[in-house]
Amino acid sequence: MLGFLLVHVAALGVFFVGFSWKGIALCLASYYLRMFAITAGFHRYFSHRTYGLGRVPQFLMAFLGQTAAQRGVLWWASNHRHHHRYSDRPEDIHSPIQRGFWWSHIGWILSHDQDEPDYSRVPDLVRFPELLWLDRHEYVPTFLYAVALYFAFGPVGLFYGYFLSTVLLWHGTFCINSVMHLFGRRVYATTDDSRNSFLLALVTMGEGWHNNHHWAPQSAAQGFHWWEVDASFYLLWLGERLGLVKGLHRRPKHFRAAAVEAMRTGRAFTSVRRLEQVQSLTRRWHELGASARLHAHEALVELDAARAGAAARLEKLHDEAAGLSARAGRRLEELHAEIERARAHLAEILERLVAMAESLGMPDPQPG
Ligand SMILES: [Zn+2]
Ligand SMILES: [Zn+2]
């Protein structure tokens, strides 16, 4: 983090050195020399193995790549392989889709999450002890490079050729991780949000054809058409002519047909990842609808059960009431019978009293 800031501050040293055409030329030469080592070396060779190199050129390429101060060659390749495996998914270490522009541009490098390289992702590279040594002494090449520029060209060499050039080289490279997953044209239906940009292809010697690259990472060429300028590939092609480069992987044969197919189905315009998001939302929507219907159905069943229960209870109450009224009727009849019996009994007593009075010669108790 501190080193990163200090190099930015040191790049401002060009204002003290003063304007210099030689400085500008040195800055650009140093930029493109090391950009080549990053794109053709770190990226297309060490990360993707799109061609073969002898052991000495391989070491020189790694050494030159590390003059760009983008940490060790194995660290770089290991993280880049991880990026391709999970591009723009939550595991991706530098996806602007997942964690925003600044994180994908510099945040992930400055964080300590990726301090230790994961050598398990680069078993083919770890077996070279000289690469392992370089990776463990990540800043030795860049330090030697800066010193050499100073001794060769003085302060102009150091501030233009090293500090300013390194800062530009950093941001040029980092733009591939940030800008090229956000802005530009999509041609192929990749599962990430990678895009193509002519401007970035000029700045990064062909890496601006990033959507092409994510579609065909095994190809050493990232520009497929003649107008998709890809300086790294031209130099690799030259290297092949010179016998330095072996087995250079060309663009995929079906690149035109795949682009036409992607355009015809409309899948290139929105990445497959977006499509998956839409599909998953639609699925969720249907699930919600289904679960709502299920709930409504359950509620209806419950309501039915409650209604049946209430009806049964009502019937029972009705029966109870009928029973009660029958009992009351019987009781009433009994009372009537009792009254009748009592009345008959009274009449009998009265008759007997009248008979008794007659026998005693008593006047008729009845008035009148
Ligand atoms: Zn990418
Ligand atoms: Zn790549």
Helix/strand layout:
Elements: H1 2-11, H2 14-17, H3 21-47, E1 52-53, H4 55-66, H5 73-86, H6 96-99, H7 101-110, H8 123-126, H9 129-136, H10 140-177, H11 198-203, H12 210-215, H13 231-241, E2 245-246, H14 255-265, H15 272-359
Antiparallel strand pairs: 1-2
Helix pairs in contact: 1-10, 3-4, 3-5, 3-10
Bound molecules: zinc ion (2 copies).
One zinc ion binds next to helix 3 and helix 5.
Descriptive notes:
This protein is mainly α and 368 residues long. It folds into 2 domains: 2-270, no CATH class; 271-368. The chain contains 15 helices and 2 strands. Strands 1-2 form a two-stranded antiparallel ribbon. Helix 1 (2-11) crosses helix 10, helix 3 (21-47) crosses helix 4 and helix 3 (21-47) crosses helix 5 (73-86). The longest helix has 88 residues, at 272-359. The protein is rod-shaped, with a radius of gyration of 48 Å. The site of one zinc ion has 7 residues, from helix 3 and helix 5. One zinc ion is lined by residues 43, 47-48, 80, 84, 213, 217.
Rg, rounded, reads 48 Å
Amino- and carboxy-terminal Cα gap: 140 Å
Structural class: mainly alpha
Assembly state: single chain
Strand content: under 5%
Major β-sheet strand ordering: 1-2
Ligand identities = zinc ion
What is the global morphology?
rod-shaped
Summed up, the domain count is: 2
